[in-house]
Predict the structure.
Amino acid sequence: MTSQRVHFYQVGSFAVGNRLLNEEERTIQAQADRTNSIDSGHRACQGCGEALGARYALDAAMRATNGQVVAVNATGCLEVFSTPYPETSWRIPWLHSLFGNAPAVATGVAAALRAKGKKDVRVVAQAGDGGTVDIGFGCLSGMFERNDDVLFICYDNEGYMNTGVQRSGATPPAARTATTEAVGPEPGNVFGQGKDVPRIAMAHDIPYVATATVADLHDLERKVERAMEFHGARYLHVLVPCPLGWGSPSSETIHIARLAQESGLFPVFEAEYGVVTSVSHIRRPVPVEEYLSRQRRFNHLFGANPRPDIVAHLQAMADENIARYGLIAPEMEHSS
Amino acid sequence: MFQIRIHGRGGQGVVTAAEILSVAAFDEGRHAQAFPSFGSERTGAPVVSFCRFDDREIRTHEPVMEPDAVIIQDVTLIHQVDLFSGLSSDGYVLINTSNGFSDLGFGDFFDHYRPERLMTCPATEIALEHLGRPLPNAALLGGFAALTGELTWDAIDKAVREHFSGPVGERNAIAAKAAFDYVDSKIKETARASTN
Amino acid sequence: MLRQIEGSKAIAETVALCRPEVVCAYPISPQTHIIEAVGAMVKEGTLAPCEFINVESEFAAMSVAIGASATGARAYTATASQGLLFMMEAVYNAAGLGLPIVMTLANRAIGAPINIWNDHSDAMAVRDSGWIQLFAESNQEASDLHVQAFRLAEELSVPVMVCVDGFILTHAVEGVDLLDQSFVDAFLPPYEPRQMLDTEAPVSIGAMVGPEAFEEVRYLAHLRQLDALERIPAIASEFFEATGRESGGLVRPYRTDDADTVIVAMGSVLGTLKDAVDARRDLGERVGVLGVTSFRPFPSEAVRDALASARQVVVIEKAFSIGAGGVLSNDIAIAIHHEQTLLRTVVAGLGGRAITRRSLEKVLEEASRDELATLTFLDLDRDAVDRERARMQATRRSGPSAENLLRDRATVAPKVRA
């Protein structure tokens, strides 16, 4: 009789409905008593990655802190769709000030809590990539430098989506946006230096930095809970596809996020005090084309006038990430 | 009201000097005001500070346009800056230098001034002797007190010690006394000479 | 206790007595001595519990104050000029959110050209923001006003800025009677927020408001400032009862009752003006001074009453609206029955140019002969201006005007002009 080892891949990320898992292994979203920090009825687009990410992140933060979270939000999609006048979806204390000051406002909230001796109440600040990477960058770095007790979550959909899909400092090269149209000899966004905020956060040596995507929601929850074990400045960068801005089917948000991770274009890892402590390995690396071709924002790289040179350039970037973080899974054991 | 203008260069304690004068006047129960005329902070740049005191409340905040006394902490300013603008012919001048007043090249500028009110004092040398540093401001305040009699030595002494606490205050007060004595003896010398 | 103390330090010590819980600031001349002093008090523990945050920009300073105030903490910051402009988005945001933040504005000119000295252009730049703006005449009033400011702000849920002339007041050492802790504690109760980020009672603060309700929100803010028109004198009156000092209030008339000409001004120039007016009074002229202490809300009624019998009103202001004219003058004009009163504007003190008693007496002299133009720029060097205009006329590449003027003047060292 021959036997063959069968690998069961983790059910979690493919079925966060979690019915097949033991209760302790289910996500918080599977619990009936979850906080619903951001409740249903908000106005996010169908398939919005940010709504999904925020829901998981905030409820995880609430569980980790026994419900003692104050949220600060930058201007952006999340703020707009969660508080459509005259309603709010927030069931937790929530403050929206401006576009570029979420980190500083959160610093102020944390300072007030400290002055008042409310040690158990924790602060979560959240912003899109615009409010983090561009206009919020100065305040973000200041918050890191002072090590203020704030968990800052960036929901990165790689552009200013709320205002009509304009390019941000987080927009990947070659992507089409309204301010980087797919025309001319260099269609889409230019190949600049990029702005790798997770690495910049690590360069500040803050207690905890992590990246995550909405393709692995267990992982996202775990990272939020891990972050809440620390005091001081913490940064979480979550890739959240935007069906509208990326030109992808609203049913494929999670799938596309997974492809981003599995191609190496979006490395998923954790770091503490400036040193990488864990990476999410790629079991089967996926060529960047598989990721890019599902999004209309990269259409101009394929079809009638393809740009294999640009695709190759992007592949090189992915390969560099794979090398830098050691993203390929160690060889699996094979039974004889 | 008695108004003083102090000229010097950044780093010589010009602003502090005005402040100490105002504290001395305050300690004597008068109303006093001291403030600088700032340039952007820079050592070596010309700096002006003002002090005024009065027995009545002081309401104005204009710079001292018509000083009763001018203190020059840095003699190199003499031909660079308009130091004596607004000074009445009854005014006092105290210049930090080891030269005599008549050696400073003023020509006939001070012909109509009262010579016993024009004084020099080697405040930098005095400061070097007692402080070990060329900071003439406290010394000049002692000289001012002796020259004008507007503030008592005790008030200056107390204000100097209050401002520079501990041993530094002690040494500055000694320097101020040395300058006070220097000017005081010069005045008496001049008075004796003129009665002879 | 009466102390001979630098204005900035007096303000800092008074602010500390107000028990702020979060202080955040970014250094800018001439505010630095204030925040340095508060920072030292927090660091050595004399001001506690208080968090002192060294922020990375003025924009962050106001933002930290917003977060702190929304969390129920008494929040304080200070700035000037360029810093105020850099935080302007947050300044409007704080007022719009109804957060009772108190800020010291060490009035300083706005560049370009860069200028660190005093004028009122910074305060004028945010006059429409919804902040209450109070102008201090002296360092005594500057420190007293901060206590009143916290009280006013928290009562009405409106942020308050105390305007203090940079360098002229902030860096002047004068006698200030400092209040003590027991007085301030009695005058200023602990902060009871109208809205607060509280895990026990969650609220959403800062939601979008569309055309359906925006006008109403703005109008409510306006009503709160109109409420302030009553609260400001009431608080000042209470303060007077307790201290015997006239600090705060809406306007401060001086010898205006029978005045034929009244000079209107704000801030430290009022002291010099009073000396000038006394001198003219000694010559038999009927002149008076009206200090405006509360610039926002603008005390139209109080101004109208004070100027009712004046034939001529001369507004001396340290700011002007380029291409238009006086700023304070505008508000004065609307308040009084302009048709019956001669209104003259004198722009003075821009960029820190000293306003001397002599120049003021000259203005009063011309006013007494009805010889003041509608708009005068005091002590303007007309020749220098004309020379630059001629240069610009002569060649296209005439160079930066500021540098040309400086070179023209051949400034080697600061001169005090007689």
About this structure: The CA atoms of residues 36 and 49 of chain B lie 4 Å apart. Helices of chain B lie at 14-27, 123-131, 137-148, 153-163, 166-195.
